[in-house]
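Hi R.,

As promised, here are both runs. First protein below:
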Amino acid sequence: MTIAQSTYHKPFRPGFWLRRALLYLVITLGALLCLFPFYWMVVVATRPSAEVFSFPPKVIPGGLFMEHVQALFKMLPFARIYGNTVGYALSVTTLMLFFDSLAGFAFAKYRFPGRDFLFGFLLVTMMIPGAVTLIPWFVEMKLFGWLDSYAALIIPSAVDAFGIFWMRQYIQDAVPSELLDAARIDGASDFSTYWRIVVPIISPALGALAILTFMGAWNNLVGPLIIITTTEKFSLTVALNTLIGLRMTDYGALMAGTVLAVLPIIIVFLLGARRFISGITAGSIQGM
């Protein structure tokens, strides 16, 4: 018998291929439904505002995007607002990655009095709805004199219970205690051990947390809406919200600003998609 004759041929199963075709069809339709709002955003940003509610709707992009961007810059100090949002999102992301990973490292690899109680209390705080804390947070920021200041948005967001929990679980499984003991024997300090050994190992989890944190800060509306009152200090979400008029709204300018606001999020996710997925799945694989 030749090799060709001995090759196993999988029998043709119409039911199997039909189910697979239906599965791909459903996934494709779901992807199109998810992408359509972004496409419609681009259409509105490139066509006259009067055509937004026309019937039948115009579904082909036009050529008025730059005109709408110019109108947007006339209505708002958009470049300054864009810089505010970039600085705010990067500051929150950087601080949260540092403090959450540091606290997660302490909870995962150190034994100290009250550790389990503190970690349990941390988990309890994750169950508290954010809306419940808005009034106490506002009163506290007023006492600190931080109203109309980004300090009220950045400093309270420097540490997050979910981030600490995530880092603790990841470090507990990914970082061998024997490696840390070897570093201590070599004379490394606790912080040096964290910075030179732990951080490189947990980089996938840090990448995933960075993407989630950056997107959350970038899209935050409630916090800046409550704290920031000066137009020059607005974030993108607040600035775009002010463009929604009671009687008339320049939808072309509004959607042009939305396109510019969404672009960094898409770029950040595309650049970090592989690291994000690896960070999400690594913890589950190690926990099996």
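And here is the second one, sequence first, then its structure tokens:
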Amino acid sequence: MQAIPVIDLMGGQVVRARMGDRASYRPLESPLSPTNDPVDVVRGLLAVYPFPTLYVADLDAIQRHGDNFQALRRIREEFPALHMWVDNGAANGSSLHALIRADLGTPVIGSESQRDSKLIAQHRDSMRIVLSLDFRGDAFQGPQEILAEPALWPRRIIIMTLARVGSGAGPDLGRLASIRSIAGGREIYAAGGVRNAADLAALKGAGVRGALIATALHERQIVAADLQAM
């Protein structure tokens, strides 16, 4: 199973995400980094473990308040071997292609940013993009047709449980099992609530391909030995 560290960008800096309440996000303070500058934070994460992939949420772009392309380019230049999954709220072909042309990594299409299933349908069974199925509580965030039609999905799926992000509540194993049962062999990645090595083991046992983690790394609840063992 793959562990993928997460950074959330707002105003060119890394913020600490908690329970999907973006208005309350504050600058990240972490023992892994001297500042909340994206390059410093990524360097701190890579000092814990040589992660091959980084997930980045451009919160300004997702909320239509600008973007963090400059910060993304700085990360790309500083860590050229690091592959990024980038969610910048792409909701149509032009915005998705702009991200692809920028050559910053693999685009993540978030269900919460979509008005219909057309963009996702254009990339069914693709390995070039990742689909994030976003949930807030029990409510799916996005058009129901996306959730109802697994045949439209690409090969890699993130199950994003926003209310569990940074909450220490543990991963939503029930929802993950439910989505996996209809996913037709697609790769499933868990996001939200991962607390420790026991949670990683539970996800691996549940057949999850990978887990997105942030708070547990910054709070040193998941350390290099846990990642090496996994």
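A quick note on the second one: The first helix runs from residue 38 to 48. Let me know what you think.

Best,
J.
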